[in-house]
Design brief:
heterodimer, A: alpha/beta, Rossmann fold, 2 domains, four-stranded antiparallel sheet, B: mainly alpha, MetI-like fold, globular
């Protein structure tokens, strides 16, 4: 079954004016249910723009985007997706648990349901004891885990992540990647993931979409089939071969740009 | 002591030493003012009101009518207000302050509400921001003393009473900082915060109350503090314009009228008005400590 269907989508900022920018052009991409798809490409290739189009934070100038058979807008209004950005974006004035409960509050869950759910989510991201802390009392990696817990709180069917681990150090980052895969396996959520990191894309994804810049277009799509992921996989020849494949695709993109 | 992870918690335990420090500072500056005041008088008395070793006149005469001794002002507080009256000036001023405070509180409440509503309207529509903001600014260039009699006259012809008129005059001063800073605060969340709310399909109102308003608190409380002290000024000016009896405005006017027979009383009344403003300021600061927590509020 199809989760996301992007057909001929293009995005031009400030169309018709002197500083018009063609950010994306003629994107066709189909993402299946439960799939983990990464978008990778050089800076300014429009990968974040593509993610924002899917999330209905902006509207494409051409083409169409369907999410679960509906328009992206309808999917947003139906609260089909959760989002996580590079900045954790937690609210300082809310304790960790209250941050996770925010989307549930908006949907109108009862207080007891909310606190049960935030507890469950905190267990999922292994922060059981931190619900009563304020975000600024947590490390960057912990804050990011809270943000992921928040994005999963209302069980969205589609998770949109824009470099969520970009600001973390290498070790925390690898740890978070494994956490995310564990959560992904457990919740069967479809994930679209924007990243700069070749190894991150190869490690996490079922498919890696390589974009070329100005205007952003799909250069190639690389299938990754590494089976059950674990930290050990990072040191296998198969993983090395995949990162090499992604790297070469990116080099080809750079060369043609 | 073996304390586990020290979590910063703004609360009484943390606030108490700060209050103590502040008390010491206030006392210290009070002593400094008294010393300067009496020193000026002392020199002026010796030099016949000229700068020492010159014949250039001092800006203010140092005689006891123009500048009563600090001790005389102090004792004026404890002397009866009227000959044979039972209330001391201090008690009289506290009563008058309470009277004025109620008008100021009403003005503060109305001004804050109007300010917040204006901020929300300006936030909602750029058209309103462009249309309203200049008028909000212009409003403060109109001198209050010119406006006050008009409001009082309106009140009398429409029968809403002088107390409300005084509160309205106070409102006129208080809404301004709240509207201007409030708008800035409501606009302070980052684009990503607003997009997050959009991704939850949250409406304008949810975004306002759950993100923008809480985010605006560090901007709002300084505005509230300013509005609080302005509300007292507005109430005093309003009382003087409307001739309302019982408050600080009237007291200051009355004492000023009889300046030559009791200059210390005028100074005492002015000090009383200042203390009332400080009291309001302190109340709002306490509320700020309670309502604004977070990395900026926890003493970084």
């Amino acid at each position: 079954m199809t989760a996301v269907q992007i057909s001929g989508a293009g995005m031009t900022f400030n169309p018709g004016s002197d500083n018009a920018v063609r950010a994306l052009d003629d994107i066709d991409l189909t993402i299946g249910h439960g799939e983990f798809v990464s978008l990778i490409g050089p800076s300014g290739c429009g990968k974040s723009t593509l993610l924002r189009l899917v999330g209905d934070l902006i509207t494409p100038t051409t083409g169409s985007i369907e999410v679960f058979g509906k328009s992206a807008e309808q999917a947003r209004l139906d609260r089909d997706y959760g989002m996580a950005f590079q900045q954790a974006g937690l609210f300082d004035w809310r304790k960790v648990a209250a941050n996770i409960e925010l989307p549930l509050e908006l949907i109108g869950w009862s207080r007891s349901d909310r606190s049960a759910r935030s507890k469950e989510m905190l267990e999922l991201v292994k922060l059981d004891d931190f619900g009563d802390h304020y975000p600024w009392q947590l490390s960057g990696g912990m804050q990011q885990r809270v943000a992921i817990a928040r994005s999963l709180a209302f069980s969205p069917r589609l998770l949109l992540m824009d470099e969520p681990f970009g600001a973390l150090d290498e070790m925390t980052r690898e740890h978070m990647q494994s956490e995310l895969l564990r959560i992904h396996a457990k919740t069967a959520t479809t994930v679209v993931f924007v990243t700069h990191s070749i190894s991150e894309a190869a490690y996490l994804s079922n498919r890696v979409v390589v974009l070329s810049p100005r205007p952003g277009q799909i250069h190639s799509i690389i299938d990754v089939d590494l089976g059950e992921r674990s930290d050990a996989i990072r040191e296998t020849p198969a993983f090395f071969a995949k990162t090499t494949e992604v790297r070469e695709a990116l080099r080809a993109v750079e060369a043609s740009a | 002591m073996t304390a586990p992870v020290e979590t910063a918690r703004p609360g009484f335990a943390r606030a108490a030493p700060a209050v103590l420090r502040q008390a010491v500072t206030v006392l210290g500056s009070l002593v400094t003012i008294v010393v300067l005041w009496e020193g000026y008088k002392f020199i002026g008395d010796r030099t016949d009101d000229t700068w020492p070793l010159t014949n250039i006149g001092l800006p203010v005469s140092s005689d006891d009518l123009t500048m009563p001794h600090a001790s005389d002002i102090w004792s004026a507080f404890w002397a009866p207000v009227q000959r044979g009256g039972s209330d001391s000036l201090a008690v009289f001023l506290v009563k008058a302050s309470w009277f004025t405070l109620r008008e100021a509180a009403l003005g503060f409440a109305m001004g804050t509400c109007i300010g917040l509503v204006l901020a929300a309207i300006m936030l909602r529509s750029h058209f309103a921001e462009r249309g309203v903001l200049p008028w909000v600014n212009i409003s403060q260039t109109v001198p209050l003393i010119a406006l006050a009699p008009i409001v009082v006259t309106w009140g009398r012809t429409n029968g809403w009473g002088d107390t409300l008129s005084v509160a309205l005059i106070s409102t006129y001063l208080t809404f301004f900082p709240v509207a201007v800073n409030g708008l800035k605060g409501l606009q302070s969340p980052q684009a990503a915060d607003i997009e997050l709310m959009r991704s939850y399909a949250a409406g304008w109102r949810d975004t306002l109350f759950k993100v923008r308003l809480p985010a605006a608190r560090p901007y709002l409380f300084p505005a509230f503090k300013l509005a609080g002290t302005l509300s007292v000024v507005g109430a005093i000016v309003g009382e003087i314009s409307a001739g309302v009896r019982g408050g600080l405005g009237r007291a200051i006017l009355d004492f000023a009228g009889r300046y030559s027979t009791g200059p210390a009383k005028v100074y005492a009344a002015v000090i009383g008005a200042g203390l009332l403003g400080l009291f309001v300021f302190g109340l709002i600061s306490a509320a700020e400590r309670f309502f604004v927590r977070g990395p900026q509020g926890s003493g970084t």
